[in-house]
Specification:
Elements lengths: L1 H20 L25 E6 L5 E8 L3 E7 L8 H14 L7 E6 L4 H6 L33 H13 L3 E6 L2 E7 L3 H8 L16 H8 L4 E7 L7 H17 L6
Parallel strand pairs: 3-4, 3-5, 5-7
Antiparallel strand pairs: 1-2, 2-4, 6-7
Helix pairs in contact: 2-7, 5-7
Length: about 260
């Protein structure tokens, strides 16, 4: 019995010595960690999911009114140009509070066309494609960021789907940072009218290869305005953005009527 106790004691001393010498490492059993609570995204009832991005983020639209005159307004097709998103959301709130503006009209809002790019602060989507070069326009070219084929990206497919579904009479796509009101197709008069209600000058920049302007304005013949806000507009809150640009967007919706 004495010999066994001595052996156990010596074994313990040996393990301690090996541990101090770095020759023995105790087993590191994994800890049981509870999984994090899932994040729940609350989507207001007036939005509907029209599709998902490359990274499966929902893409939401907001449709107001039921009239035959249709305006489609969208923002953040370039994720690094996100100041238009709070502005479009604010526009939806304004129209819900002023339903008289919707008499005879339908307004289709797409506040975030490129959620993956917006989350990363990138111009491109999650596959490195510039969505505003991915449309099936006659002037489209294939390069590093235009996508392997026209409409290769789910986000550009959703925009095309909305245009096909609602057949808009006019389109406004909000961008930064060129500080002007550009247009494609038969939209010069629309651009001029919007320019009456904000400080941005009307300036024809020319249809970019494979852009939404080229597709909608030139290929389809739908008046489309590329509403280029300022770079530092990203630093403004939604109320300030609305004060600066809200009337111009409403002018597009009621066009060709004058604002009251």
């Amino acid at each position: 019995m004495h010999d066994r106790s001595t052996a156990i004691l010596m074994y313990g001393v040996l393990l301690a010595a090996l541990g101090l010498a770095g020759c023995y490492q105790p087993v590191d059993y994994p800890q049981v960690v509870s999984p994090p609570e899932p994040r729940i995204t609350v989507i207001p009832s007036y939005y509907r999911i029209v599709g998902t991005s490359v990274q499966r983020h929902p893409i939401l639209s907001h449709v107001l009114g039921h009239g035959p005159d249709v305006t489609f307004i969208m923002a953040t097709i370039h994720g690094s140009e996100a100041a238009g998103t709070p502005l479009v959301r604010r526009l939806g709130n304004y129209l819900r509070a002023n339903p008289g503006l919707l008499e005879g009209r339908t307004v289709v809002l797409l506040p975030v066309a490129n959620p993956d790019g917006m989350a990363r602060g990138s111009r491109y989507n999650a596959r490195g494609v510039d969505l505003n070069r991915n449309f099936e326009a006659a002037n489209r070219v294939v390069d590093e960021h235009s996508g392997p084929t026209a409409l290769s990206e789910p986000e550009s497919q959703i925009i095309r789907q909305l245009i096909a579904q609602y057949q808009p009479d006019r389109i406004v796509s909000i961008h930064q940072p060129l500080a002007c009101i550009d247009y494609d197709g038969p939209a010069q008069a629309l651009a001029a009218r919007m320019g009456e209600y904000c400080d941005l000058p009307v300036r024809k920049l020319g249809a970019r290869p494979g852009s939404l302007g080229s597709y909608a304005g030139v290929t389809l013949g739908v008046p489309i305005v590329t509403f280029e806000m300022l770079s530092n507009d990203s630093q403004l809150d939604s109320q300030t953005l609305w004060n600066r640009y809200g009337e111009a967007l409403v002018a597009a919706i009621v066009y060709p009527e004058l604002m009251k």
